[in-house]
Amino acid sequence: MSGENSDNATYSETTLTVNGKPHTLLVDHRRVLLDVLREDLDLWGARKGCDHGQCGACTVLVDGRRVNSCLLLAVALDGSEVRTVEGLGGDGEQLHPLQQAFLDRDAFQCGYCTPGQLCSALGMLDEAAAGHPSRVTGETPAGRPVRLDRDEIRERLNGNLCRCGAYPRIVDAVEDVIR
Predict the structure, then answer these.
(1) Residue 12 contacts by C-beta under 8 Å, 6 or more apart in sequence?
(2) Whole-model pTM above 0.85?
(3) All residues at 6 or more sequence positions from 108 whose CB lies less than 8 Å from its CB, including other chains
(4) What are the pLDDT digits (tens) for 5-22?
(5) pLDDT tens profile 22-58
(6) What are the φ and ψ backbone dihedral angles of 4, each rounded to 5 degrees?
(7) pLDDT by residue (tens digit) across 101-113?
(8) What angle do CA 168, 174, 179 make, to 5 degrees?
C-alpha cells in the first residue's frame, strides 16, 4: 500500500523485522532507518551522530550486515531483518558476550558510540568468520575464516569513531570475545 499525504510526501507500507519482532509501518519515502528505529519503534540505542555515515554511531545490522542506518531509506528495506544493540542480548536476560567484554574492559567511556561499536564488532566477527578480507588481511584462502589480530580488528572497526579515545579497550574487548 502506498499513497500521498497532504504534504505531498509519498508513503508506503513497510515491514521490518526488528530484533526478531515484525513491524509493519506506513513510512514516508524520505525517512531513513535510523529515524524509524528511534522515533517510531522507540529503539534509542542507535545514535544520530554526523547524519552523513562518517561516524558509525548509527551502525546496526541489516540482514546480518553492518550498515549506517542514517543513510538507508527505510522503505528500501521492506522485508529486511534489522538487529540493533537492544537485540544483542536476545531475550534480555543475559548480555551478549561483546556487551559483557565492553563492560569488563571499560571500553565504553561516555557510551555515545558504544551501540554502534557493538553492532559493528558483531558484524565484523561474522564477516571475518565468512572469510571476507580487509585491507590488512594477509594471504588467506578464499572462503576461509580470517584470523583477527589487533591490526585486523582496528582496520575493520575504523568506520566507528570514539571521541573519548577508548580504541585500545575496544580492541581488547573484541579480542576477549574471539579467544
Answers:
(1) 1, 2, 26, 27, 29, 75, 78
(2) yes
(3) 102, 114, 117, 166
(4) 657 789 999 999 999 999
(5) 999 999 999 999 999 999 999 999 999 999 999 999 9
(6) -115, 155
(7) 999 999 988 889 9
(8) 120
